[in-house]
């Protein structure tokens, strides 16, 4: 499944990925912190949406992610 | 590691748990507003998952346009006398021990919305007699009759924020007057000395430490019991810039200075907001008053 950047607030358009907390190939559990995103206001820690394997990181550290855009894929 | 603009200690966990979802649905179903959503509060996940929320009454459009605030500014049209009942219903359905009620500024209304505040307090009292009620009010443009209307409805805590230091009012809170804000806090204590008063400031807008301490002293001169100090965070690029991020140790220092001035309870920290963990502040405020 695609792991996307949710609209964390009405005005939010994009965020910067500051840190991935898992490496590709590692297992993830639903609700576990997976990535840190810097937005206008704060650093937000996003949780894994499902159990699985972090198959691919689409937006790397230091790169900008759009709201609704795919951050990573979980299989 | 990429360079961060926002320090690492300003971090929240985004968690749309069951309580969060239930609260979101309830607020939507009851056609209510919360300052949590309207002000893009970073603590929304934490608070809503703990089943606490701050209701924002008198609509979602504010007559002021403060430079720190994300609430929509404009000409309000909403005036709904059923709103107090809907807030009370939501408080009951959530089973809140402590309800915090705030509002937009309604400089267009003769009483600034004080009567709706009073009705909301009474409606919560009737529906949930064991729930404590905290109000976070606008400055009512310094109108003491409006303050009396709210105080006579019998809230447990009366909160009004000075928000920043007086020198920055022209830039940050252009339609507000520092003396009016202090005057409100003073008037509440004159009307009801046993009512817990509370006020708060944001830091990082360009104030100096001396200016902050002077504001704390001014609050204590008016016998304010509870103080909150939090980091200003810019809601969007259209708002005032953050000029400085205070490290956690500096919040600790401010807290200890404030406690020495005699506040009964002080919350100071980057993510502290005026109603953040408000339910935990009541006992300290009350004990202090009981102790005289």
Brief synopsis:
The complex is a heterodimer of chains A (75) and B (292). Chain A is 0% helix and 49% strand. Chain A is mostly beta strands.
Rg of chain B computed from alpha carbons, rounded to a whole number of angstroms? 18 Å
Q: What would you call the structural class of chain A? A: mainly beta
Please report which band the strand proportion of chain A falls in: under 5%, 5-15%, 15-25%, 25-35%, 35-45% or over 45%: over 45%
What is the CATH top level name of chain A?
Mainly Beta
Amount of beta strand of chain B: 5-15%
In which order are the strands of the major sheet of chain A placed? 1-8-6-3
List the helices and strands and how they pair.
The complex is a heterodimer of chains A (75) and B (292).
Chain A: E1 2-4, E2 14-20, E3 27-28, E4 33-38, E5 43-47, E6 52-57, E7 64-66, E8 70-74
Chain B: E1 11-14, H1 18-29, E2 33-34, H2 35-38, H3 44-49, E3 54-57, H4 83-94, E4 98-103, H5 114-127, E5 132-136, H6 144-152, E6 157-159, H7 169-172, H8 178-191, E7 196-203, H9 209-221, E8 226-231, H10 248-261, E9 265-269, H11 282-290
Parallel strand pairs in B: 3-4, 4-5, 5-6, 6-7, 7-8, 8-9
Antiparallel strand pairs in B: 2-3
Helix pairs in contact in B: 4-5, 5-6, 6-8, 9-10
Describe the structure.
The complex is a heterodimer of chains A (75) and B (292). Chain A has 75 residues and is mainly β. Chain A is 0% helix and 49% strand. In chain A, β4 (33-38) and β5 form a beta hairpin. Chain B has helices spanning 18-29, 35-38, 44-49, 83-94, 114-127, 144-152, 169-172, 178-191, 209-221, 248-261, 282-290; strands at 11-14, 33-34, 54-57, 98-103, 132-136, 157-159, 196-203, 226-231, 265-269. The termini of chain B are far apart. Chain A binds chain B through residues 6, 8-11, 16-19, 31, 33, 36, 38, 40-47, 61-62, and chain B through 1-2, 4-6, 8, 10-15, 40, 42, 70, 233-237.
């Amino acid at each position: 499944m695609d792991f996307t950047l949710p609209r964390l607030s009405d005005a939010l358009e994009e965020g910067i990925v500051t840190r991935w907390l898992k490496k590709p190939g590692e297992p993830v559990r639903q609700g576990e912190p997976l990535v840190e995103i810097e937005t206008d206001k704060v650093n937000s820690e996003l949780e894994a949406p499902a159990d699985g394997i972090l198959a691919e990181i689409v937006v790397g550290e230091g790169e900008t992610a759009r709201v609704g855009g795919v951050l990573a894929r979980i299989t | 590691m990429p360079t961060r603009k926002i320090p690492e200690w300003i971090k929240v966990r985004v968690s749309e748990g069951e309580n969060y979802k239930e609260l979101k649905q309830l607020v939507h179903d009851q056609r209510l507003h919360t300052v949590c959503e309207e002000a893009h509060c970073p603590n929304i996940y934490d608070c809503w998952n703990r089943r606490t929320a701050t209701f924002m009454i008198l609509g979602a459009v504010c007559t002021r346009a403060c430079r720190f605030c994300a609430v929509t500014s404009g000409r309000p049209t909403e005036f709904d006398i059923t709103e107090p009942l809907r807030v009370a219903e939501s408080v009951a359905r959530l089973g809140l021990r402590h309800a915090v009620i705030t509002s937009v500024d309604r400089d267009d209304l003769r009483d600034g919305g004080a009567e709706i505040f009073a009705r909301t307090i009474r409606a919560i009292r009737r529906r949930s007699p064991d729930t404590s009620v905290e109000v976070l009010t606008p400055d009512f443009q310094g109108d003491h009759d409006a303050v009396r209307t709210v105080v006579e409805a019998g809230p447990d805590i009366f909160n009004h924020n000075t928000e920043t230091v007086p020198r920055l009012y022209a830039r940050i809170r252009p339609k507000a007057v520092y003396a009016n804000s202090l005057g409100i806090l003073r008037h509440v204590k004159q009307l009801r000395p046993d009512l817990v008063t509370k006020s708060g400031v944001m830091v990082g807008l360009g104030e100096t430490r001396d200016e902050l301490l002077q504001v704390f002293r001014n609050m204590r001169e008016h016998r304010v019991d509870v103080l909150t100090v939090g980091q200003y965070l810019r809601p969007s690029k259209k708002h005032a810039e953050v000029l400085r991020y205070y490290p956690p140790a500096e919040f600790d220092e401010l807290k200890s200075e404030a406690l020495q001035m005699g506040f009964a309870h002080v919350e100071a920290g980057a993510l502290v907001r005026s109603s953040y963990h408000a339910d935990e502040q009541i006992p300290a405020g009350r004990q202090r008053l009981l102790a005289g």
